[in-house]
Amino acid sequence: MRTSRQEYHAPMPHPTRSFWGWGYDDSQLGAEELSTVRALVEARLGVPCPPPLAPPSLDAVRLPSPCLAPPPALAPIVSQARYDRAAHTYGKAYRDIVRGLDGDFAPAPDAVAYPRTEAEVIAVLAWCDERGLSAIPYGGGSSTVGGVEARRDEGRGAVSIDLGRLGQVLEIDHVSRAARIQGGILGPALEAALRPHGLSLRHYPQSFELSTLGGWIATRSGGHFATLHTHIEDFVEGLRVITPRGVVATRRLPASGAGPSPDRLFAGSEGALGIVTEAWMRLHERPRFRAAATVRFRQFLEAAAAARALGQSGLHPTNCRLLDAAEAQANGAGDGTEHLLLVAFESADHPLEAWMDRALALCREHGGAHKEGVGRTRTGDEGERDGAAGAWRSMFLRAPYLRDGCCRLGLIAETFETAVTWDRFPAFHASVMEATRAATLRIAGAASVTCRLTHVYPDGAAPYFTVIAPGKPGSQVQMWDEIKAAAAEAILAGGGTITHHHAVGRDHRPWYDRERPDLFAEMLRAAKRAVDPGAIMNPGVLV
Amino acid sequence: MRTSRQEYHAPMPHPTRSFWGWGYDDSQLGAEELSTVRALVEARLGVPCPPPLAPPSLDAVRLPSPCLAPPPALAPIVSQARYDRAAHTYGKAYRDIVRGLDGDFAPAPDAVAYPRTEAEVIAVLAWCDERGLSAIPYGGGSSTVGGVEARRDEGRGAVSIDLGRLGQVLEIDHVSRAARIQGGILGPALEAALRPHGLSLRHYPQSFELSTLGGWIATRSGGHFATLHTHIEDFVEGLRVITPRGVVATRRLPASGAGPSPDRLFAGSEGALGIVTEAWMRLHERPRFRAAATVRFRQFLEAAAAARALGQSGLHPTNCRLLDAAEAQANGAGDGTEHLLLVAFESADHPLEAWMDRALALCREHGGAHKEGVGRTRTGDEGERDGAAGAWRSMFLRAPYLRDGCCRLGLIAETFETAVTWDRFPAFHASVMEATRAATLRIAGAASVTCRLTHVYPDGAAPYFTVIAPGKPGSQVQMWDEIKAAAAEAILAGGGTITHHHAVGRDHRPWYDRERPDLFAEMLRAAKRAVDPGAIMNPGVLV
User: Fold this and answer.
1) A137: Cα separation from own chain's centroid
2) What dihedral do alpha carbons B188, B190, B191, B196 form, nearest 10°?
3) Which of A73, A82, A99, B333 has the fewest CB atoms found within 10 Å of its own CB?
4) Contact at 8 Å (CB) between A494 and A434?
5) Distance CA A408, CA A431 (A)
6) B292-380+382-500, which class in CATH?
7) What's the whole-number mean pLDDT along residues B109-137?
8) What's the CATH number for A287-380+382-499?
9) A2-20+55-162: which CATH architecture?
10) Alpha-carbon distance B493 to B514, whole Å?
């Protein structure tokens, strides 16, 4: 397959990327790590796992023949090779990995385009528009909600548009601390380009390694900051978006009150309106000061109240993540008896004693205990970290690989997330936990359901749930879909949102369609028709 | 006229409000204050003012006869009295006051509706839709951009919809620190309702006294906070909007990533999409700690660099307003030789020494001098203030009355504002000042053009300009329009926005239409058609 890609002069940006699972082939779990995961999960669930499935072989997967061929002018940037089509079939949801492991690549796009320039993006969209093909923007392919998967039952051809070659930082404005950056850049490349300038976007979603700026903006990605500016769109100064009807370029501004924000209409548009080829992004100076602490609580709701107090304090901690006791233990950061609140501040400007002192005082007022001392660094930004926080962070970045390992062990292993106001939080947390646990037990016979708060606001929080359960071979996707439906119903009934930062995609549509006002959906459809009259852009998401 | 209003059972919320100018009749400038203003302006411009015009008499103003009558079912909430129609003819731009003083009320609406309930809002819109009447939402009537003025050359009837009777705080959520509030509530009534609960929205635009929550949201109003969350939409949890096609009610959430934000499409929609009848708003605990200081600079660009440093520091000062030397002097807060940076922090949670100490250190690093000591308060929120800041604040709230006084003295007196990134700021500031000064001198023969920064961001600032000049009787509107056009051209050429927080209205359309992407305008038009197929909602603004 490598050969065929080279024929098209369209190599993947990373030749060793897995076509069926997360990340790079050489980072996949080895036999030993897989055994460790297996032992941990078996202990947690109390049921044995079957022997691990072997990763699928590209030659053996079931991939339909493409039903179209690119026009000659686009041949240099369009691939129909097995590898490219398989690797662009799915995102990285649990249901995607399971289908990939099973060799099922039925929804594969007919072709994958790798535009190198904005003009080539325009040319690819023109081709799709003319032929009525689904044009599916593909950033890092890390969608967990079916955001990059063609719905082939619509009977039309589909082209996955991989933006990986639009991966440059084009311009840096040191004075305003901002940069003009191409949409297809991956997280690590973006940070590598900014680091020599002492700058950072500091956007670290769990998908950081394999997700792109354009994808973050299109999905309203949530990242590093647990309070204040939590979503990527808070850092957007201006956008350049290619739609089937032409370019939308917004003015680069620190703020404006001139009508509804165009940037905010494209943020979260999930490829349904166009492709983000460039953005002016607000950056940060790399932090010189950092203070981090882990606070332990006996009662989860006490810990949540402490998180609320921090969220309402005006201290704006960089990190304010609450792991429930089971989640902490599963991540190697606790013994399962205490809930952990990870609090951290960072600054390029000033020492953080006053901030952390007050934060810890607030935690104590809410029943928290803090024993280890405060980890502080003054230089570099990868310095020492508080033990539990450090363990959790390592696990955080490794999690997608571990999840794939769980899939190979036949397990159900997935997450879902939401946000809700504080007044509803206690009942909401209880009902979503209970609905999810009950559904999982009923469907799978055993269940681990854990919760953390990933983001904290003055008026609410973003709870994030992880489900591990035994799966029945061949039924895992359906089993998960049923569990997820039960959870989603509890979320909607409890006043939450169907997603805080994972996006809507195709998988969340049934609940999104109930959450968002009907007339707003009509407005969105109308706005889409204005720039995408042929309805080619990522059909099936949002509207 | 009082009698006729009473016949309709539709009293104005404030019976003493001026029908032609800012505020309340009993707060207008007296003869002595007017003399003081006159002396100050004459000294500044070096030319004499003519004797002050008397305020217009309602009986004498030129008001066209209404071209329609309300249906009987709406008669109890619709007035066609002279007072009501005159008082709803204009916003409070300079060009509005001048026309009002001149007795010109040609664009008066044919009727003013005072709905008391959402059902009555719906009924009024249904009437307008059926008859093809312009439906002009009217909050506090403080628009400075022609946002509430009917364009009568369209030949259709116009109804001003005064939301003043939808002025209640409906529900308070202490846990989440939020409240459900009706759109027609005025600033003082809103704060009065929250104060007993220890809460505050802390949104204090210069129009605070006579502007409404719904109006703030519809115009993306900028308020109290000079950094961080500067615009009202940052505090919106959820909205309830009445459109001609029905109600749009968004889910109350602390944050969400579910598609493009519906709240952000209605924020800034300026009445063109619907009427904001309710909003869930994020609130603040009333501050217990405050620290304020005034820092003096010899060089304006040094002061701006200090403001930039503060904006980029992560300290998030509540106030960070830079007055240039002339502006400071005009506001009674300086002798005209030094530029003043007003810095303040406030908190309900913690003392602010560390914050203010670092802020003052940053100012010193940029050449600032701080002599008076830091004003600090620990209880109440109306305590002692630093002298210059206090003087400036008093002037800030009195300014609209003073502006009306200037109008009576035949002067041109108006402001305009924008935002621009820091890299462009020095050249931008110079070119806008120069273009405005040159145009004013050419057109009026004398000019005072001053600048302040009202809001400071990590990547830019919001400059705010004040123009005072002698006017020629009968030509003032045209003179100002020419000056404003020159300023607006410089703003657009320099990379700024046509408005940071004054909105677009009808007056900014020529520049807004060039600033916003054409395809976005098409999207907005399409979205509008989806909820307002008859195009009745505030025609002429935005699209």
Assistant:
1) 15
2) 130
3) A73
4) no
5) 31
6) alpha beta
7) 98
8) 3.40.462.40
9) 2-Layer Sandwich (3.30)
10) 11
Q: What's the pLDDT band for B391 if we cut at 50, 70, 90?
A: low
Please report the pLDDT score of residue A8 as a whole number: 41
Q: Per CATH, which fold does B169-285 belong to?
A: 3.30.465
Distance from C-alpha of A325 to C-alpha of A336, rounded to nearest angstrom? 5
Place of tokens 């509890």: A490
Contacts of B261 in chain A (CB under 8 A): 264, 267-268
Q: Is the pLDDT of residue B15 over 90?
A: no
Check B261 against A256: CB less than 8 A apart: no
Asked if A261 and A254 touch (Cβ cutoff 8 Å), the reply is: no
Q: Determine phi and psi for B523, rounding to 5 degrees.
A: -65, -40
Give the pLDDT of residue A379.
47
- Residue burial B177-215, b: 16+ Cβ < 10 Å; e: rest: bbbbbbbbbbbebbbebbeeeebbbbbbbbbbbbbbbbb
Q: What is the DSSP string of A503-538?
A: --TTTTHHHHHHHS-HHHHHHHHHHHHHH-TT--BS
**Mean per-residue pLDDT of chain B:** 93
DSSP codes joined into one string, B303-346: HHHHHHHHHHTT---SEEEEE-HHHHHHTTSS-SSSEEEEEEEE
CA-based nearest residue in chain B for residue A541: B259
Q: What are phi and psi of B504, to 5 degrees?
A: -95, -50
- What are the domain boundaries of chain B? 2-20+55-162, 169-285, 292-380+382-500
Q: How far is residue B134's CA from residue B243's CA, in Å, rounded to a whole number?
A: 13
Residues A203 and A230 sit within 8 Å (Cβ to Cβ): no
CA B113 to chain centre: 23
State yes or no: pLDDT of A378 exceeds 70.
no
- Please name which of A12, A14, A17 lies closest in space to residue A400, comparing C-alpha atoms: A17
Q: Which of helix, strand or coil describes residue A156?
A: coil
Give the amino acid at A237.
E
The C-alpha angle with vertex B26 and arms to B20 and B29, in degrees rounded to 5, equals 75
Three-class DSSP category at B456: strand
**CA–CA min distance A142, chain B (Å):** 16
B268/A262 touch (CB, cutoff 8 Å), yes or no: no
Tell me the chain A residues in contact with residue B458 when contact means C-beta distances shorter than 8 Å: 176-177, 254, 282
Q: What is the spatial distance between Cα B330 and Cα A244, in angstroms, rounded to a whole number?
A: 53
